[in-house]
Amino acid sequence: MTVAGSGGSGDALSKLRIRRDEPVRGGGWLGRFVRLLVTVVVLALLGGAAWIFSRSPGMLADANRLMESVRTKLEVRVVLASVEEGRSADATVVATGYLQSRQQARIGARATGRIEAVLVEEGVRVAANDVLAILEHADLDASLAAAKASAARCRSELLEQDVLIARTQRDLQRAEKLLAGRTMTQAEFDTEKFEYDAAVARRESLQAALQLAEARVQEAEQLRENMFVRAPFAGTVISKDAELGESIMPGGMGEASGRGSVVTIADLEHLEVDCDVKEDFISRVQQGQAAEVAVDAVPGRRYRGRVRKVIPMGDRARATVKVRVALEDADERLFPEMSSTVYFLPADAVVGDGVAAGGGQETKVVAGRRIFCPNDALQTMGGDVWVWVVGAEDRLKRVVVQVGEKKEGRTEIVNGLAGGERLVAGSSAEYRDGLAVKVLQ
């Protein structure tokens, strides 16, 4: 039996095979033309961009800045190159701190009440015992009046009792004469004597009642006095903490419990700097030592200071010891909480108008200008010493410097810096000229 059409099926299968050596339909001259055109356009765009950047270097720089802004900037901590003049340049120790008044207090009431009047404003000078504020006290006025009336009644009763005593005393004297003349019985005489003794005893009771009434008057007066907030010492009002109509109570911590103080006063005539000195250098600071104080808010002025106290307690976490330096020539430009720098002078330093701190002969002050920078800003390699200066647009610049004397964590810069520059503290292999960085605040 013969299978019909077997040869026809083989021909059909052969027609389905893909011939890779045959060109793809539609891939003729038109496809090649399109591919060529795309290539020419791309090359033209790249060439045009290169020509524009070559003709405009600023655009190339802007493109570089744009790329840098996209990249994450290095974070750096900066320190300042300080300029020191006069004797402060010879300081053995330098420390920073804040001004504070020798006496400063938040003044509140000694009793709970609502403010009836505030009699002072910020900046007003007050004397000791001046009234700063008054609390409502109408009820205490009434209590005081009642106590005074009760005391007055006791005095009146005491006077009446004195009259009664005088009368019974005379009756007793007559009874004694009658008893001596046998014209009065002993029983009648005893009655007169008992009346006199009772009157005297009654006076003692009334005297005690008067003392009690007078004590209640004093108590009422003190309660009323507690409604007057007075200044405990002479000073200046630096803060007004409460207003008319607010409630106030001793130890108040907020709106829920009432305010704790009405005003804050400080003695601005006796200011001192509370500063921290590193443990490594505390041996160079002694009580009574002369110092110069620079206040950031008063540039160009150095105040005379003297170490008032070295607090005998160290700070374990910061490895410092607290030192208080009293200002001897404070003026009206100084206020508490101002940032200050203390320069502890050597024993023979000159302070003020030329008197040596050690008590020796007067010496002329020689003015000088020296530049110092913290040691952690200095970079060294071989014989070269340089610093990284953070300049305009927060970009780094490598500046070679010449160094001089080293003291207390800082080094004098003899050449290379003008003072006031921002210097990078620490080092990194990534630092280079022109690198944009982020300055940590």
TrEMBL record:
Residues 196-230 form a coiled coil. The chain crosses the membrane at residues 33-53. One of its GO terms (molecular function) is efflux transmembrane transporter activity. Keywords: Coiled coil, Membrane, Transmembrane, Transmembrane helix. Residues 104-248 form the CzcB-like barrel-sandwich hybrid domain. InterPro entries: Beta-barrel_RND_2, BSH_CzcB-like, CzcB_C, RND_pump_MFP. Residues 374-428 form the CzcB-like C-terminal circularly permuted SH3-like domain. GO terms for cellular component: efflux pump complex. Residues 273-344 form the CusB-like beta-barrel domain. The keyword Transport does not apply. Pfam families: Beta-barrel_RND_2, BSH_CzcB, CzcB_C. Belongs to the membrane fusion protein (MFP) (TC 8.A.1) family. This is Acriflavin resistance protein. The lineage of its organism: Bacteria, Pseudomonadati, Planctomycetota, Planctomycetia, Planctomycetales.
